[in-house]
Specification:
443 residues; mainly beta; Neuraminidase; Glutaredoxin; eight-stranded antiparallel β-sheet; five-stranded mixed β-sheet; 5 helices; 30 strands; 38% strand; globular; disordered N terminus
Length: 443
C-alpha cells in the first residue's frame, strides 16, 4: 500500500456519489459497472458530469452474422449504451459510437450507425428526445464538448469544430490553427471553456490553444487521449506503466507543472474522464475484473515535477530502430499494424489490413503487410481474436521499450508505413482497406 492510503468501495452510495469525508486524504476506488465476458469497448467511454450515468460504445460478436465466403467473421452490434450507475439499468442503446456529454449533462452527442441515416446525433437526457443530422459526418467524430463565450462548441477528432445553434451545427465549421514547431496536432479533446485542447505531437501529449498558440505545454508523456477537468487546471490520461505490460493513469497539473499517478491498480487503467466534482471514471482490465471504475480524492495523491523538456519521437526512424529482431523486409513498401487484444477497434482493423494485403498481392504490388502486438495483450486473448476473425497475417515482435517510438501509445491500433526500410508515415486508429490502398499510393 502506498502513502496515498487507497480505500476500496464495493457499491455506489445514494445518487451514485461516493461518501468521502472532507478531512480524508484517501484515494477511493469503486467498481461501477462490469463488462460482459466477450464485450469490448469501442474507444473511450464518458461519465456524465454528475457521475450518475455512463455512456460507452460496446462491441459484441455476432456468431450468426458471417461475411462473404472466404472473408473473416466481422464483429457486429457496435452499440452506444447509456447506463444508470445507481440501478445498473440501460437507459438507451442504439448502434453508434463516440458519445460525449454536454457540460450540464442534459444532452449527449454521438455518431449513429443504425444504417437508416442519422449521422451525428443528439440525445436529450433524461427525456430521450433524439435529433438527427446535427452536423456533417465528414467533419469527424470522437467528439468533445465545451462552452465558450456562452455558446456550446463541439470539437472532432479531425481538428474541426463548430458551435451549436440549438441542436444543430452552425456552419461553416472552424479548424484548429497550426502552430510553429507542432503544427495542428492529432486527435484532440477540448477544455470545458473551449480555450485549449490536448493533442498528440510526435508522440507526446501537448496542451495548446484552440484558436491560437498561447500557453502551450508539452507534457513529455506519451499516452491516450487526455481529458480536461471541469476547472481546466488538470488533464488525465493513461500511459504505459514502466517495467510492466499494463497501463496506468496520470494526472497533470497544468498550473504547477506536476504529475500524479493513480496507485495500487495492478491491471490496466484506460481512458479516464472527469466528473464535475473532480472524480475520475475509467475502464479497468485485470484478471479479476473487467469494467468501469471510479476514483475519488485523486488530487490528494503526491505530485512530482513534470519534466521541463518534452520527449519527442525522432524525426527519422529506420526498421532496425523499431524491429531489430526481424530482418528488414524485402518489399519496397511495408505496412506494420500495432494492435491490442483489448481494443474493440482491432478486429475491424485486422480484417481490413488482411483484405488490403490480398488486394496488393492480387495486383502484384510490391507491398508487404505485417502485425505487431502491443505490450499488455494476453497471448490467449490474441489467439482467440485471431481465430474468431480468421486472421492469418504475419506477426513480428515489438519490444515494450520500443513501443514509444511507434506512437501507438496514443492510439491503438496504429499503422506504420515503411519505404525501403525507412518509416515515412504513420496513421493512428483503424484504417479501412480502401484507406490503406490510397495511403500507400499517395506516399
Amino acid at each position: 500500500m502506498t502513502n496515498a492510503r487507497v480505500v476500496w468501495v464495493s457499491a455506489l452510495v445514494a445518487a451514485g456519489v461516493l461518501a468521502a469525508s472532507a478531512q480524508s486524504a484517501q484515494v477511493r476506488y469503486e467498481r461501477l459497472f462490469p463488462l460482459k465476458s466477450e464485450e469490448g469497448v469501442f474507444a473511450y467511454a464518458r461519465i456524465s458530469p454528475d457521475g450518475r450515468t455512463l455512456a460507452y460504445a460496446s462491441i459484441m460478436p455476432d456468431p450468426a452474422r458471417l461475411a462473404a465466403a472466404g472473408l473473416p467473421r466481422q464483429p457486429s452490434r457496435t452499440t452506444q449504451t447509456v447506463v444508470d450507475l445507481k440501478t445498473g439499468a440501460v437507459q438507451f442503446a442504439e448502434a453508434g459510437i463516440d458519445a460525449y456529454w454536454s457540460l450540464d449533462g442534459d444532452r449527449m452527442i454521438f455518431l449513429a450507425q443504425s444504417g437508416a441515416g442519422g449521422g451525428v446525433t443528439m440525445r436529450h437526457h433524461p427525456d430521450g428526445e433524439i435529433v438527427r443530422n446535427v452536423a456533417p459526418s465528414s467533419l469527424g467524430d470522437y467528439f468533445s464538448w465545451a462552452v465558450r463565450d456562452g455558446k456550446n462548441l463541439i470539437l472532432t477528432i479531425q481538428s474541426n469544430y463548430y458551435y451549436l445553434d440549438g441542436d444543430k451545427a452552425a456552419l461553416p465549421a472552424g479548424r484548429v490553427v497550426p502552430c510553429d514547431g507542432i503544427g495542428i496536432g492529432d486527435r484532440p479533446l477540448i477544455s470545458k471553456d473551449g480555450r485549449r485542447i490536448t493533442t498528440f505531437v510526435r508522440g507526446s501529449v501537448v496542451v495548446r490553444g484552440l484558436t491560437d498558440c498561447e500557453n502551450t505545454i508539452d507534457t513529455g508523456l506519451q499516452g491516450g487521449k487526455a481529458d480536461f477537468s471541469f476547472d481546466g487546471r488538470h488533464i488525465a490520461f493513461h500511459v504505459a506503466r514502466a517495467g510492466t505490460k499494463t497501463y496506468e493513469i496520470v494526472i497533470v497539473d497544468l498550473e504547477r507543472k506536476t504529475v500524479r499517478t493513480l496507485p495500487d491498480l495492478p491491471g490496466s487503467s484506460l481512458f479516464p474522464s472527469w466528473t464535475r466534482d473532480g472524480r475520475l471514471c475509467f475502464r479497468y482490465d485485470s484478471d479479476d475484473y473487467r469494467g468501469f471504475m471510479m476514483a475519488s480524492n485523486v488530487l490528494s495523491l503526491p505530485a512530482r515535477p513534470l519534466s521541463a523538456a518534452g520527449t519527442r519521437v525522432p524525426a527519422t526512424l529506420r526498421w532496425n530502430d523499431l524491429f531489430p529482431e526481424t530482418p528488414s523486409p524485402a518489399h519496397e513498401t511495408t505496412l506494420v499494424m500495432i494492435w491490442a487484444a483489448w481494443s474493440a477497434h482491432s478486429p475491424y482493423a485486422l480484417a481490413e489490413l488482411q483484405a488490403a494485403g490480398r488486394a496488393f498481392a492480387a495486383r502484384r504490388a510490391d507491398v508487404g503487410v505485417l502485425t505487431a502486438v502491443e505490450l499488455s495483450s494476453r497471448r490467449a486473448d490474441i489467439d482467440r481474436l485471431l481465430q474468431d476473425g480468421a486472421i492469418s497475417l504475419p506477426e513480428i515482435p515489438l519490444a515494450p521499450e520500443r513501443l514509444f517510438f511507434t506512437e501507438a501509445l496514443n492510439q491503438i491500433p496504429t499503422t506504420l508505413l515503411f519505404r525501403n526500410g525507412v518509416l515515412v508515415d504513420r496513421r493512428l486508429g483503424a484504417q479501412s482497406a480502401d484507406a490503406l490502398a490510397a495511403w500507400v499510393a499517395s506516399r
